[in-house]
Amino acid sequence: MGVPFKDIVVYLDGSESSMTAAMYSIKLAVEHQAKLTAVYVVNTKALSELVKAGIFVAIERDEYQRDLQADADRYLRHVAKLAATKQLEIDTVKLEGAIHVVVRQLLKEQKADLLVLGGITDIRSRREELSSETDRMMRTSPCPVLVVRDDDDIWLEFEE
Questions:
Q1: List of residues 6+ apart from 155 with CB closer than 8 A
Q2: CB within 8 Å of 34: residues ≥ 6 apart
Q3: How does pLDDT run along the chain (160 residues), one tens digit per residue?
Q4: What CA–CA distance (Å, rounded) separates 94 from 144?
Q5: Which CATH number fits domain 7-159: 3.40.50.2000, 3.40.630.30, 3.40.720.10, 3.40.50.620?
Q6: Residue 140 has what DSSP assignment?
Q7: How far apart are CA 71 and CA 94, in angstroms?
């Protein structure tokens, strides 16, 4: 059996658990000499739905979208710096759209071997379960999915 993972994609959403997943992915990519891509998706579909529901007006949506774009850039830069500390070159990708749809498309285009996600939050209702993007990514991924639990040990090991 050859190298199990050659092309790894880690999904970032700015949460602490996604940062833990990024650190784990970096270590995994170094150990397996794999290519690593970090992806952040600005959820424009959700923003449009907020406008349709009357929660946002278009001008608020545009302002919020600019803020989300800036957040995406910041998190992708941070993960690139983390990778550099381990002498790993990393591709960073910022996309827009429905998260699970564009992530699935990226995985197919790259022929990714593994999708790495941060820990799943507790789902308190059936509605939350149906709308969970992490859950949707797990269900629709064309490749295996690794869910990394938010664990202080990963942070400590990464910093060694």
A1: 20, 23
A2: 3, 5, 6, 7, 8, 28, 113
A3: 456 889 999 999 988 889 999 999 999 999 999 999 999 999 877 666 766 677 667 677 678 778 888 999 999 999 999 999 999 999 999 999 999 999 999 999 999 999 999 976 555 544 444 457 888 899 999 999 999 986 778 888 888 7
A4: 22
A5: 3.40.50.620
A6: H
A7: 10
